[in-house]
Amino acid sequence: MSDTRNSLFRLKDFGVSVWCDELSRDIIRGGRLKQLIAEKAVVGVTSNPSIFQKALSEGTAYDADIAALAARGKTTEEIFDALAIDDIREACDVLRPVYDSTGGEDGYVSIEVSPSLADDTEKTVSEAIRYHREIARPNLMVKIPATRAGLPAIQRMIALGKSINITLIFSVDRYAAVAEAYLAGLEELAKNGGDLRPVASVASFFVSRIDTEADKRIDEALARETDPDRKERLEHLKGKIAIANAKLAFARFKEIFSGPRWEALAIKGARAQRCLWASTSTKNKNYPDILYVQELISGPAVNTLPIKTMEAYLDHGIPEETLSHGVDEARHQIETLAEFGIDYHDITDNFAERDGVQKFVDSYVQLLAGLDEKVRHKAAS
Fold this sequence. Notes:
single chain, alpha/beta, TIM Barrel, eight-stranded parallel barrel
C-alpha cells in the first residue's frame, strides 16, 4: 500500500516533530493553527519578540484589547504582557489534544522571558515562574536563553518540575552545559520526591545565523588568499558550517542521553531533552530554501518552521535520514576553518550568542515602541 501522507507528516517517521515558528491572534482565532495541525503535521508552536512584533504590526486583531488595557492605565509593557499571555493560553488550548494524544511528547507552545533579563538569573526564574502560574497550561514551555546566567535558571526551573525551552544555543559546548543543567534539575526534582514524567524540555539551536557569520568570515579569508587550491577548499565550506555544527550537537545529544546516569532518570519517567532546530529559514538566497530542514532529519528532534518553509518542503522535500550521517566530515569541515585563521569557537561561543541576544532585545524594543505608538494613536482618535 502506498504512503499517501505528505512529506511533513513523513518527517515523524524519522523522529522529527514539526513546530510552527509563527504565531498571531489571527492564526489562532481564524482557524489557521488547527489547519496547520491537520494538514501540515504541526505539533507545537514557538514565539519570541520578533514573532510578536510581526503579529502586532499587522491587522487590527489586537486593537480593541490594546484600547481597553490602555484605558485601565496599563503601561506599554503590561499591555504587551497581557496580549501575549492571552495568545499563548489560547494556542495551548488548541494544541492540548496533540499534547494529550502524544502523552506529553508534543503539543507545546513556547513563550519567552524578556530578553532584557538574559544576564539576570533571579529575574529570569521569577518571570518563568510567573508565566507558568498565569498561563496555567501543562503544555506551556517557557523559553530561557542559554546565557551563563540562564544556566542556573534552567536547573532551578526543571527542579521545580516546569517545562522549559532553552533558546539561543549556538555552540556544542554551551549545549552540553544546558543538558547538564537539565539533568541536574531532574536529579534534584527526583531527590525531592517530584514527578519527572510531566517535565519536558528542548534545547533550541539557532542554525542559519551560524552560516551567516561563518560565510562572512570565509569571504574575508577568501579575499586574503591567492592560492587557487586553498581558495577552492574555502569555497566548499560556505553554507556547510551550520549543518556541521548541528551534526556534532546531535552526536553529543546521543552521548549525553545514554549510559547509567541517564538510564537512572529514564526509569523514573524522565524525558530526553530533544534538540530543536530554530532559525531554519534560509537567509542566503543562493542556498536551497529547505536546506535547514532537509539536512537536519533524525530524531528524536524538533524542527521549527515558518509557514513559508513548510510550503516549500511540501513542494520538494524528501524525507530521509540525513543528520546522523557524515559526522566525521562535519568535524573535519569545522577543523579546516582554523587552517584559514577562522575561529569557529568565536563564531559560536561569542559572536553568535551576543548577536542573538541583541537581536531579540532590539525586536523587543521595537515591539514596545510600535505598541506605544498604537496606544497614543488610539488615545488621540
